[in-house]
Amino acid sequence: MTATDTLDPPVAAGEGAAKKTLTEALLYLDGVTVTFDGFRALNALSFTIDPGEMRAIIGPNGAGKTTMMDVITGKTRPDKGDVFFDGGTTDLTKLDETQIATLGIGRKFQKPTVFESHTVLDNLRLALKGQRRALPNIFRRETAAARERIDEIFETIKLTEHRGRLGGALSHGQKQWLEIGMLLAQDPRLLLVDEPVAGMTDAETAQTAELLRAINANGHSVVVVEHDMTFVRDLGVRVMCLHEGSVLAEGTLDQVSANERVIEVYLGR
Amino acid sequence: MSPSDTRPPTLIPTNGLVFLGVLAAVAVLVPLLNLATSPDAAVHVPTYVVSLLGKYLTYALLALSVDLIWGYVGILSLGQGAFFALGGYAMGMYLMRQIGTRGVYGDPMLPDFMVFLNWKELPWFWYGFDLFPFALVMVLLAPGLLALVFGWFAFRSRVTGVYLSIITQAMTFALLLAFFRNDMGFGGNNGLTDFKDILGFNIQSDGTRAVLFFLSALALGLGYVLCRFLVRSHFGKVLIAIRDAETRVRFTGYRAENYKLVAFVVSAMLAGIAGALYVPQVGIINPSEFSPANSIEIIVWVAVGGRGTLVGAALGAVLVNYAKTYFTSGFLAPYWLFMLGGLFVAVTLFLPKGIVGTFYDWREKRRPSPDALGEPLPEPKPAE
């Protein structure tokens, strides 16, 4: 897939959109279009994520938020457009899920997906950055460094006392945290987090915001898709509103929520 | 937090020790009671029983091979009988070559069926089968290679669930049709039979049968230890993760298809060994071993015993086959297949985790604090 017309940025880029050049961006999407049976899930979507940035993405159902994550992680191939990672060095549209995960892009699904019949500890062991090939893993021994790293992650996600339980036995909120912990264990450069606080109590939501901020402060870039506006406010980061597969508005939460079009299609009057 | 949860699960858990203990006792006692007691003694085990039990043990190993991929990776192979049969044919070809001039036609090189078909020369793929080590290599290689090629295409194309089951079924059916043909060079409909000896020992003698029985028990024991070693390793944890959430595994950076492929090939080789031990004890290998119904029966054994427990698979194979022997030799014989089908339905409805899985659950309930590091036993999904 060659570069589409980069001289012609999409009109819908919104006010205050600081679109970086290809070489500066950690993640670079340009003119990405995905069509399912005639339905345009993504319509010339363009945006960039800086190294170390955290970005919140909001938007009504069907705006293309999950499809965007599918495109970035290699689950869906775009019909048109460019998706580059790491300052334009890697074309993500040419790679599959496993290769993209290995590059350093981790993803948390909308529905919490942990390995239900493994213990919480084993869930983290499996996710921990390290050997991924089949045959060497038959004879793999756990190193002291790996154990220490796992203990650290347990501290961060506050599941230390649950390490011996089965993943499937955790509460919904705990599963969400475990999945974030698994992402951390992968040590990705970019975390894509799809609705991390769905079904959480207010206290859990606040803790999750804190957790994601801590992760971001540690040097990981984070993209969070979320409907919960309180949570988005807690994150205190740049916000982007998607609508009908492209960017409707971008800026601080106050800027975006004051946008007429955003109020019309998403927030409501 | 108990300190035990950071310890890896033991290689052989308690149920495995019981299993291996019983197996060792059977492996020693059955041949001993056959060879060292007089036929009139009350404790004497007749030779036909030794062979029958030996056959059960090879079936148990076959069931173990299915449990490795079905119970731990979620690959419901309805073609496992093909790997068993290929291992069996490799052994059968060695045994045919051992007949030499003692065949009906007395040809030193060609097995009887080739003389009968008026063949002048041994086909190239029969070369080397006069050598026992070569045959042993082929016992592993033939099923292993088929699994490698088949699995490579199937797993890479992400064929899963019922679709995978259907193509494994098609694979074994295709082989059934191929091996039926006389010009394939494997004895056609009649298969390979009339074996005389193995490594110079008379295949009919009590001593040989006792040794074959012992070897079958040994193979089953070693197969169990190998499977345990695999499933408790990091590799095995990935397998279980694939069974539960394959997409998650891919997004975590593992090549799920490679893990499946390794497990599938190991499983095919175990089935091949089972087939190689089966043939000398039963005395014949023919294309019916490839029949789809055989492969489905193996699934029933594993489901009855308890999927994802290893020990359960072996137990299920022995129990169902004992029932088969018992019921097919009486007036109930015409109804055996109905009973087998009924058994499968009953187990799926009332004992979805099989005998061993249900036993674990019952034990868990009695224990105050559940041991989460035991065997993971999710609800079996019939289509996977």
TrEMBL record, chain A:
Protein name: Urea transport system ATP-binding protein
Organism phylogeny: Bacteria, Pseudomonadati, Pseudomonadota, Alphaproteobacteria, Hyphomicrobiales
GO cellular component labels: plasma membrane
Organism: Ancylobacter tetraedralis
Keyword match Secreted: no
Pfam family name, one: ABC_tran
Keywords, in A-Z order: ATP-binding, Nucleotide-binding, Transport
UniProt cross-references to SMART domains, sorted A to Z: AAA (SM00382)
Domain ABC transporter: 27-269
Annotated InterPro entries: AAA+_ATPase, ABC_AA/LPS_Transport, ABC_transporter-like_ATP-bd, ABC_transptr_urea_ATP-bd_UrtD, BCA_ABC_TP_C, P-loop_NTPase
Keyword NADP attributed: no
One Gene Ontology MF term: ATP binding
TrEMBL record, chain B:
InterPro entries for the chain: ABC_transp_permease (IPR001851), ABC_transptr_urea_perm_UrtC (IPR017778), LivM-like (IPR043428)
Membrane-topology annotation of the record: Multi-pass membrane protein
Positions of transmembrane segments: 12-33, 45-63, 69-91, 131-155, 162-180, 210-231, 258-278, 298-323, 335-360
Compartments (UniProt record): Cell membrane
Gene Ontology CC terms: plasma membrane
GO molecular function: branched-chain amino acid transmembrane transporter activity
Keywords from the named record: Cell membrane, Membrane, Transmembrane, Transmembrane helix
Protein name: Urea transport system permease protein
Native organism: Ancylobacter tetraedralis
